[in-house]
Amino acid sequence: MRFFLTMVIMLMVDQLSKYWVVTNFNLGEKWTIIEGILSFTYIHNPGAAFGLMEGKIWFFIFAAFMVVAGMIYYDSKYNPPDIIKYALGLIAGGALGNLVDRIFYKSVIDFISVGWWPVFNIADIGIVVGSIVIFIFLLYQERGNGA
Q1: Catalytic site residue 124?
Q2: Does a structural domain hold residue 137?
Q3: Whole-structure pTM value
Q4: 25, 50, 87, 132: which could join 42 in a potential S-S bond, CB 3.0 to 4.6 Å?
């Protein structure tokens, strides 16, 4: 239940934030929050992170379905620790959020701009945070087992 609830909340927060951007900004418009540090810049990214593999929409759609299906399977078969359930929910919710964009917009809506880093969105934050949590958990587990 923790996995599914986290996934749904992540998906909803992501899609609501993108709806806010789409309804309040023009494509390419920038709203500066803290000069040189944080701004909202509404763009469409037809690729993956950093614009890689632009135009490979069917690959990304297939990959998102496979990732989410794999996480659902893993959660239901192995009943991982709660922290992993939350992390997987963040990743799956983020993947679904970007999947919804790819299906409806043929690209991903990005809008958060931090310093020199490429523009990203809430789904990307969920994917990165979930991945970091899993990495730290696995690292901790490995050290705890005497390795």
Answers
A1: yes
A2: yes
A3: 0.90
A4: 25
